[in-house]
Amino acid sequence: xxxxxxxxxxxxxxxxxxxxxxxxxxxxxxxxxxxxxxxxxxxxxxxxxxxxxxxxxxxxxxxxxxxxxxxxxxxxxxxxxxxxxxxxxxxxxxxxxxxxxxxxxxxxxxxxxxxxxxxxxxxxxxxxxxxxxxxxxxxxxxxxxxxxxxxxxxxxxxxxxxxxxxxxxxxxxxxxxxxxxxxxxxxxxxxxxxxxxxxxxxxxxxxxxxxxxxxxxxxxxxxxxxxxxxxxxxxxxxxxxxxx
Amino acid sequence: xxxxxxxxxxxxxxxxxxxxxxxxxxxxxxxxxxxxxxxxxxxxxxxxxxxxxxxxxxxxxxxxxxxxxxxxxxxxxxxxxxxxxxxxxxxxxxxxxxxxxxxxxxxxxxxxxxxxxxxxxxxxxxxxxxxxxxxxxxxxxxxxxxxxxxxxxxxxxxxxxxxxxxxxxxxxxxxxxxxxxxxxxxxxxxxxxxxxxxxxxxxxxxxxxxxxxxxxxxxxxxxxxxxxxxxxxxxxxxx
Lengths: 244, 239
Description:
The structure holds two protein chains of two kinds.
Chain A: E1 2-13, E2 16-27, E3 31-35, H1 42-49, E4 57-62, E5 65-66, H2 74-80, E6 81-84, H3 96-108, H4 112-125, H5 141-154, E7 159-163, H6 171-186, E8 190-194, H7 198-204, E9 207-212, E10 215-220, H8 222-227, H9 232-243
Helix pairs in contact in A: 3-4, 3-5, 4-5, 5-6
Chain B: H1 3-10, H2 23-66, H3 71-84, H4 87-97, H5 107-133, H6 136-144, H7 149-179, H8 191-202, H9 205-237
Helix pairs in contact in B: 2-5, 2-8, 2-9, 3-5, 4-5, 5-7, 6-7, 7-9, 8-9
């Protein structure tokens, strides 16, 4: 059953045509990796899905809510679809624990006591329970990203999006984050992941969508796209990132 | 060289002679009057004016930050006007023009109003600037967590902007304290006016204004230090 349905989505930034008619569906429990060169519109696409960017044409349904409709309650959409950013974007004036409990208490109306319990459970799950009372500025990038993942999960979204979650991390820290994400995928979380980590795509993703210049070039099983891409453009990209 | 002869030589020599014996007395009188008459008024003006200016500046800065249509244009005209006019002129304007419209305020009320309007404009720019300084990613992150506009401002944006704004606000408060001396011109007996009146009777401008300077300095310097200290603390926090 499709929980995300994207139909012919077009996005313009004034003169710049960023998304040129994107359509795809994501089923419940599926993990889909979006790959492609920078500037191909992957991040913009994710940002359209939770309404951070408005689209000019097409339709986006998330868990039955029409995100493209200007009358839709975006807060309700965002309670159902979480996002983890490349730069973590934790709130620097709050401790890790408060970063997680603030939206729980304010946006979901969870009791503070229960919110703290939930937050501590999740921090344990992402492996930084001992950092609960530390401010983000005193954490490593990897720890900050773990906290950001816990924060997104605490909202109990039906879908979680990851926008290049390891691109801002030192190479030795990416493995840990990818492990957390792979475990999440295994648990059956519906995930949309923009990443250049092909190892993660092979291991954890059900499907890969390759984008270039605002269009979907091809999609299929990750190992197929990585090893035997049908399109020339995909082949070139896989070689480029393989060479690195 | 002792103080007596220094004071004597500073003036026009022999003409200063009659006063030389009274220096200690004059000094004591000045201290007492500054402390009991001028200082309370200056502090009261500073505090009251700054608190009202903070309220005004916060509201104006926030509205301009949120770009509320129409109101923001009116407020921009106000801010530009205040920033483009001398404070003395604003004070004169309120003092002499308002009575024509049958609005009669006391000298104190006029002074507080002028200080509020003037400092409020500058504070609104500080507030707006600090709100704008919070990265777009913080707004997006808060939006993505389903916080509504009020919650985003209240729990995410404003708390961060407040700590950024403390050093410039402390700096502005020093300017504000010093601006209170201008209101001596509308016959309000704050520090500067007390000094001017005393100078006319005691004929000791150097002594009178030196002690006046000391009062202002003691008032302003700790705030200045506080501003610098806060700046360092915030620089470390947001490194």
